[in-house]
Amino acid sequence: MTNNLPEPATAPTGVTATVRPGTPWKPFMPDRTDGLFALVAYALGFLFLRWVFFEWQGWGVALYTAIYCGAVTFYLRQKGLRMPRAGWFWLAVLLLTGLSYSLWQGNGLEPWRNLFLLLTAIYWVLSATGMTLLGKTSDWLPLDGLHGMFTIPFGNFGSQYRSLAVLRKQRLTSRKQIWSVLLGLLLGLMVISAVMPLLFSADNGGFADIVQGVWEQISWIRVGNIDLFLQAFLAIPTAAYLFGLIAGSAHRRGSPNYQQDSAQKSMDALRILPMATIVTVLGLVSGLYLVFIFSQLPYFFSAFVGERPEGWQVYSEYARNGFFELVGIAMINLSVLAVANLGGQNTRRESAALRVLNVLLASLTLLLIATAFSKMALYINVYGLSVKRLLPCLFMVFLAVIYSGVIVLQKKQFSIMRLAAGVGSVMLCALFLLDPDSLVANYNANRHLSGTLADFDAAILYRSGPAGVNAALKVYEQTQDDTLRAELEQYLYEQKYMSAGSTGQTKDTLQRARVRKRLEQYELKPTGGQGDSAPLLPDSKHP
Known about the structure:
The radius of gyration is 28 Å and the shape is flat. The relative contact order is 0.12. Mean pLDDT is 81; it is low at 1-19, 200-204, 213-224 and 529-543. It is an all-alpha fold. The longest helix is centred in the C-terminal third of the chain and has 32 residues, at 352-383. It has helices spanning 32-53, 58-78, 85-103, 112-129, 141-155, 159-169, 177-202, 206-217, 225-250, 260-268, 275-295, 297-301, 315-343, 352-383, 387-409, 416-434, 436-450, 458-464, 469-478, 482-501, 510-519.
């Protein structure tokens, strides 16, 4: 299998036949390690719901990510599994993504950061156990992901209870009693969190004085009883899913039909289009793009010199129109390349015409990417930066890397999907750790104070959350615009109020702690006539 996007791949040299995620389906045979991890899986499910699922903010997500990675790694080592190189890469990606939650709130990155964290947590288990189709990240990544997200966990959904049954039949040695103690602590904390509020309500003051200090230190367990019992109940199916994914992968209990040979046969069955049809389609599409581009050179290239073409009076419409044109054309071109190279009766290596047309279509797409990027740069130069304008720019860079890879692929053999996954993951991790909301706010503040940006859109600060505090203070202290100062004071008051309310909670972040320290010297009052309530979010002037 040649590892590339346009055509299915054969097994690379050096990969033995033992790297097979699908094995003949047989009963799940747990041992004591599985039984102990079944208890840990319930704790993981409960903490996921408590710290992650209902919050998606703060150090709670980062701590859970570290606990999850540590527990799974320890379990796999106890099962005698050695993590391959791909597993270490995805482990680093997962930990860095989780770490970003404790640093910045990242309003502009949601829900993409949450989705990326979940998918990476699943795919890392597959990589760590060698359950991907080729034993590593390859062009089969989408199918590997679906196999790991649905087939493995739901196919082993009841394995947690079989593993728990082992503990009833086998007596734990004293060396293993620590697991029982940990389980008791977890269940005890759940009961205490429900009973403690009732004791407080019945106490006349003495008991409250005794436990007040300790209670403040463990304030993270103070939630409503309904929430606590709901989380404990939902932790049951959540734990079953997690255990099914992790233990099922460790026991290599994937779908028996998910084999490299069967997958390759399915891909080969798609090769039904004659090469003459493929060449005709690619030639017509490429010719159409060439005629279209040369007939509208002023429209496509005016942004390179900082001008709008005739008939376009609004920068935002011009830039957004160019970006969505790019997305549509890029997706169509990827689909055309995939169909041409996966559905043709001849492979790329067998047809020089196909290789030439692949390069031509990819090059035309790169040209359109460059023009769209110039339009977005023109838009940012006029209206300033926002996360919704930054993300399209990064997406265009990502697409440029992929299409450049398609061109190189015509000469060298490598996995285009591995390139996309690696580059995309590194870009996302860097984005998460660099706090784009803060970068956006500071960029606009510096340009506004230097006179190169006429309007400072305060609505962007509200979307940035606490990330915009430093930029807001910089503008607030230097601007002479009373209206803008009132807007900024309202925003700063809200952030001071919200940051103070997150103290000691799992949703707290390093960024919010810095905001509390920075704003404690300011006597801020709401200016919107709403008393102590949070101000309303003003409408943005531009998207």
